[in-house]
Amino acid sequence: MFRPVFIAFLISLILIIWLLSGLLIHDNESISAERISKRNHKELFSVRVKNYTATIIDREVIVYAQTAPSREVLLKSQTNGKVEFVSDKRGIEILESDLIIKIEINDREEKINQAKAILSQRKIEYEAAKILSESEFLSESKLAEANANLESAISQLKSITLDFNYTKISAPFNGILNDRYVEIGDYLEVGDVVAEIIDLDPIVITGEITENDISNIYVGQECTARFPDRKQLIGKIRYISPRSSENIRTFTIEMQSNNPENKIHAGITCEIILPIESIKSHLISPALLSLDNLGNIGVKIINEFNEVKFINTEIVKSDDNGLWLTGLPETVKIITVGHQFVKVDEIVNPVLESGSDKFENKPSNLLINDSSSNIDIELNK
Questions:
Q1: What residues contact 149, with CB distance under 8 A and at least 6 apart?
Q2: Is residue 6 assigned to a domain?
Q3: pLDDT in the model for residue 81
Q4: Which of 36, 168, 252, 326 has a 20 to 30 Å separation from 235 between CA atoms?
Q5: Domain boundary at 231, 255, 276, which?
Q6: How many domains is the chain partitioned into structurally?
Q7: How far apart are CA 44 and CA 327, in angstroms?
Q8: Which domain holds residue 141?
Q9: Domain check: are 312 and 339 in the same one?
Q10: Is the residue at 267 inside a domain?
């Protein structure tokens, strides 16, 4: 009787031990799964991301340029003589016909009076010869001689009068007396340079454009000139060179713009901004740019599976707000903090950043766990 009781007790003990071992194994598996889950979560980098939406902007060609007068002329003496008057308005606006240089008249008035007297005599001689020729008391050759003498007297008077008028050198148009090269008492010969006149209203802005962009430019195209002090002028293209430079293969273009009160001077460097087309692009901070293994410029984004992806982009333009890029989807999540520490195709833990598409240069703190070195890195960007 003892043996059946012992056997029953042994079987019951084995069953109890088996049941208890199942519970322990289950608990251990739960604990292990929990630990694995925590470890996997800990190994994911946390990066900050932000939603960006494309905006339509004008694609632009920027040409480095320089301002120049729309007209400039070197005034030269057309007669000989001593200078007796010089304008003191150098650098100041002058009007058309304003006197700049005056040369001594000397005996020019007497020569004019003499030429007038000779002309009167030749008129009388010609009229008398004409009457005699009509009465056949004078040959036709004598009449022709009298007519030639009359024409010579007329020409002589015109020449002397012109020489008299050349003693006054005046401004040919409204502009600025940029410089003068003579002083009172200087003796001038025909052809001597005496002054320089420039016209700054309108003003011309000249630059060189590459052969890649020349096909997008046309005469009459509206454009903008931007100066180092951020002032801007609106104007139009007035000239495009039909031939490129032999040395650098660029084409000269000229933009013309109104310049009231001559506020913009000649010789100032600037940029000509030429809108070419309207395109969709994203505005980002330059700090978000990355390079791939081939050295291509782009940004790192997060897809719907929280995977890091690199997208090649093209910089359309830059301004005070940042860089405008093309090549991205219309809406995209860009990594704004931590992109330097993650690789393409790596799964990360994204932390969404709220706010507008326009980035702000404000410090942001984000802890990133580097599982390879077990160091928490604090980014201050």
A1: 122, 125, 126
A2: no
A3: 95
A4: 326
A5: 276
A6: 3
A7: 28
A8: 79-194
A9: yes
A10: yes
Contact residues for 54 (Cβ-Cβ < 8 A; gap 6+): 280, 281, 282, 328, 329, 330, 331
Query: Any idea how long the chain is?
Result: 381
The CA distance from 273 to 110, in Å, is 61
Q: Given a cut of 90, is residue 21 above it in pLDDT?
A: no
The strand pair at 269-284 and 222-226 is best described as antiparallel
Residues 94 and 118 in one domain: yes
Give the residue from 276, 301, 318 where a domain finishes.
276
- In a 3-state reduction of DSSP, which class is residue 371? coil
- For range 318-327, the mean pLDDT: 90
Q: Is the pLDDT of residue 367 over 50?
A: no
Concatenating the DSSP letter of every residue in 163-196 gives HHHTTEEE-SSSEEEEEE---TT-EE-TT-EEEE
Quick one: pLDDT at residue 140?
Answer: 82
CATH number for the domain spanning 258: value is 2.40.30.170
Helix or strand or coil: residue 174?
coil
- Specify if 72 maps to a domain: no
Q: Is the pLDDT of residue 38 over 60?
A: no
What residues does 69 pair with on adjacent strands?
203
Q: Compute CA distances 324 → 1, 313, 375, whole Å.
A: 95, 10, 35
Which amino acid makes up residue 187?
A: Y
Residue among 118, 110, 189, 179 at smallest CA distance from 150: 118
Query: How far is the C-alpha of 223 from the C-alpha of 235, rounded, in Å?
Result: 6
Both structure tokens of 130: 């004409």
